[in-house]
Write a structure and sequence with these properties.
mainly alpha, 58% helix
Amino acid sequence: MPPPRLSEDAFDVLVAQSGLPLDEAKKRELYAAYAHLERMKARVRERVAGPRACEPAHVFRPLD
């Protein structure tokens, strides 16, 4: 897996803005997983850009 496109410094800023009390070990662990999040975001954008028929139906029917 390639490293995230976001720099470690930029990631540190995001973590600081989030207010999460993370130690350095947890921060590095999350940074390593951030590349997976970037890939998931790209796939969602890819699907949204396609025709509406490609999107699965979302139906909510309450059980009264």
